[in-house]
Amino acid sequence: DDDDDDDDDAKETEETMRSAFGKLAARVNPWSPQRQRSSDGTAEEATPIAPEAPPPEPEKPLKRRLSRRLSHHESASSVYSLIMARSTGAHAKAPKELEDDAAPAKSLRVEFTELAELTGAFFIASVAWVGMRATDTALLGHVGTRYLDASAYADLWTSSTGVFAQGSITGVLCSQAYGAKNWPLVGTWLQVAYVVVGTLTVLVAVLWALCTGPALRYLFAMKHATPGEASSSTDGVTFSVIVSDAALYARILALALPAKVAFGQLAQFFTAQEITKPAVVTAPFGLLVNLVAGYVLVLGFKGFGGYGFVACPSVTVAVEWVQVGLLIGVFCCVLKLHAPCRPPHGWFSSRDVTAGRVREYLAQYIPTALALASDYWRMAAVGAMCASALSEDDLGVFNAAYRIIWLCLSFAGALGNAMATKTGVALGRGDGRGAKSEVGLGLATAVLALLALASLVAAYPAQLGSVFTSDPALIEKFSDARYPLAGTVFFMNLAVVVERVPVVAGRTRAILLCSFVGSWCVQVPAVYVAIQRRPQIDALFVGTTVGYLGLVALYAGLVACLDFDVLAREALARSETSSSSETA
What we know:
The chain contains 22 helices and 2 strands. It is an all-alpha fold.
């Protein structure tokens, strides 16, 4: 009997040790193909390894690289255990043992600090881009008014069609996959973005290179139909010559589209993982190079006369290629920040770009691009009404005020993108409550910051106007329109921030509907009625304020209807980590 008891004790000890070692093995490599033992001694199968998965990478270099890259998110040991699972090629959700190790909730102070840091990175990149555009405008203004007009006409066409080559949805999909810790899918979404956006970029390049001249002649045929207007334009130059210059300007800029797309998608790939240094470094560098090279090559320096108009878009093209070269060379080839998100079949394989993922990307991308295009077309319509119904002084005030609004939009867009990134990460990890908290913090910050900006516009309109003009009559008009202009600044920027919430939630079709209704059923009619009743610049800003107020109300209603727990489940399925979804 004692021998039987000893045998039973030995078996019980053996089973206990097997169970303990099984749990330890599951924690180190939860996707191990070996059979694991539960506490009751029964066998259970782990998630099988995909047969086409590459062999595991060396442990120590991988651990060291991931610890350095993601130390601000998780401890090195947690990252190492998760990436060991990634190296086996598994794409399933992490098991319960790892879910229980979730990081504790962050304080409001920490959340706000992270949001502010991410907003600052987006803002630097946005201001650098606006600065490049302002530099080009200033240089062309010194070359000649004819060329300044030509670039303005070209921008009308390139801005309205270039939205289809932006691919702004990439950061949303990457952030959700990153939050779900499905890092190979983060890289896969970058591959999908390059395939989809790259294909659309070919169409955009054709529109810029071949259709700019015919489109401008058609769009402005009525304005220049009379013999007097057709024969001469600014500085006595015919409109057809200005259109020819605009077409040349757009053709040269089309050469920058591949670099612009490559830079934009890769920058979104990094910022979706809250890696901000690439954008913070490369964007100001591009601004500096554009300023120095543009000044020397366009205007000349120390006896060198410069190349004039043609050099301006050529410098912009060169800077775009230098930026993407710097981004890839330093942050990918040297620092290898992209390496942990390597797709299962490698960066240059098309096997991971499946039809299901392309459909998912297009379903999110096309409505967003159309909504953005609608915004450009709406402001073009408002500008056309301003030009036709108001005086030249009012038109000058509108153009100067639009620059002020653009500077504010740089901040609002940066804050909206930062909020969307953090919300996408929270949804990706299945944290609906955390995502709702991120949205609440982002919207509250936006309201307070935009109230401060609007108050600044209302309190110091003359000082802001004097930045763009020294004409006392125009400055007085700025003062007269201070409150409607402040309302436009507030509600226009608030609409940009609120719009990012349904974007990251995947409700892009609803965004398109709200944008169409708010633009063409509310704002454009409101502006038309306002300037017909009172043809002054302040009336135009009253109409735009009413329109953006309606758009904010539509977006706010859409956000109020969102169920963040449902959105979290959808994000998990989209990130291919939900047990109920199948890998595309």
